[in-house]
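Format notes (please read before filing issues)

Several people have asked whether sequences and structure tokens are stored in separate files. They are not. Every record keeps both together, in the order shown below: the sequence lines, then the token lines. Line labels are part of the format and must not be stripped during preprocessing.
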Amino acid sequence: MDAPSRPPRVFHADGPDGLRLPLIDLDHPDFRVALDPQALERLGEDFIAERTHAQGSLVRRLFDRFLLPRLLRRSRIGRGLVRARGEVLDGLTTYLLKLGPAHLDAPWATELDRRIGGSFAGLSLRLRMQDVAELLEAALAPRLREDPDRPLWLVSLAGGPAMDCLNALLRLARADPPLLKGRPVRVLVLEPDRSLAEFGGAALRAWRAPGGPLDGLGIDLRHAPYDWADASGLDGALSEIPAAALLALSAEGGLFDYADDACVATHLRAMRARCRLDTAVCGTLNSPGRAGALLHRGSPAAVRPRSLEALRTLAASSGWAVADARERLLNTAFTLKQAGG
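Then the structure lines:
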């Protein structure tokens, strides 16, 4: 009988604000969401029941309005949630939420941080990143096998440290090592917060060091400033990618979650104009259903819920089609391919 395989080592790197942070490796059981669909559904039902009950309680509404913000300011994750009122949830807070309670044991973390990280909303963020990393892997693996000599580029749109892209590379390297061996690979992080991209670079260096899961591979990470209100920045970045490169773009928790239809369509048209026919775009949506509405009612972040069907219509108008999707209670992850590709 084969001995059970040991989980991969958890690496650490220096992150923003002087924090020493664990690196999320989705092949490690502390980070991977391994619940079956029925278990996820039960958790979702509990979440809806709890939120619905809270919504109908005057005491709870008063608590949420007047006392909860004060309590949240005592928590590092909570302060990030409060700052997000009417804005985008910052990338560091998003990353801390994705760590899960098992790795919220640092001196800065409070019991409230651990409770928020262990909530259904926190679990859904972890699952969202996991879905996108797996969709990227699925889109890239067959193309890498078909074209062993082409360089690979991954472009992260406002993805913070681009952990979804880095985890896709981890999974490809472990599942089929020859796919990346000897191949030039670049991760281009288009991110307004330079410190988050630098954290992604530190993560990549840790994993590329001797004994790391990406040891010996020719992977580098570059950063460029990005504002999704101005698609010309994306157009300029895409114009510098070699024409022969295999390319995938990722927008996990960014463009499709926060931007309006006109902005999304402008980006998709820029991608279609600059990208080869075999380019994949993986992203996420905030689901507009009952659970999503209950979450967003208590969330200050300025998300724009969008259904998968609405995305299909929007993508089709810009020359793209939904090739794959994973619909969850709070989020949907998807892959777009050019129509006709």
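For reference, the curators noted about this record: The two ends are 46 Å apart (CA to CA). Residues 12-124 form one domain.
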